[in-house]
Amino acid sequence: MDYPIKGFIETSFSDWPGKVAAVLFLPSCNFRCLYCHNHDLVFLPEKYPDFPLGEIVGNLRKRSGWIDGICITGGEPTLHSWLPALIRFLKSAAGLSPPGVSLGIKLDTNGTRPEVLRNLMGEGLLDYVAMDLKGPLEAQRYASITGVPLGEEVMAQIQASIQILLQGPGDHEFRTTLVPTFIGEEEVYALARRVRGAKRYTLQNFDPRDPLEEGLKSVVPFDEQALRQMQERVNEIIKEKLAS
Length: 244
Ligand code: SF4
Hints:
The protein has a single domain (about 5-244), classed as Aldolase class I (TIM Barrel), CATH 3.20.20.70. The chain has eight helices and seven strands. The chain has helices spanning about 40-45, 55-60, 85-90, 115-120, 140-145, 150-165, 185-195, 225-244, and strands spanning about 5-10, 20-25, 70-75, 105-110, 130, 170-180, 200-205. The chain has a seven-stranded mixed β-sheet. The protein binds iron/sulfur cluster.
């Protein structure tokens, strides 16, 4: 079966911490984040041809042993009912990794489909999950960042996904893209307290070059040194629970 895979990066050293990964981009998203850089892929996926899965598999086979795993990103991959089948296929396809070595799968998600996350993890299909925390966990704030009206039920789904990752056995990270007009320093620390015990919570600086919302192009990102200091504090906060 072929899948509407809209992008393929053969080798990435930055999408999966400590791993060499190939990256698959899946179309569509249920959010419209104002800072989104993948907006064509998200909103106009029909602009892009599908990457035939056979070609991707052929490419990965040639590089078996060099690639640790595959990062599945988007868009929002969990929207697709065929995602589990795609991952099962990639994990079981012959020759993608050396004998006895399982090809790792990393999933990027916005956390709005906890049941998908739970099922994939329950089936042992995920080796790493990176979940975005868009901002303070309040419906109004989330809606203003994600560009879609959303209510408490969506926030409950996001909270459920956080719990699944915090309580699950797998490796994971939480991530926040810091747009200075959307989130303040103390709010970042409050989010870090919300995910105490997390394996990682990564702060990503906002890139004003090509956001969905044109008006964000004039927003000045956080100073790199300030960002480093915030990351250090966040690293301390998420460990607090483990130490107590
Ligand atoms: S969750 Fe937001 S940033 Fe991620 S793909 Fe969807 S719209 Fe873009």
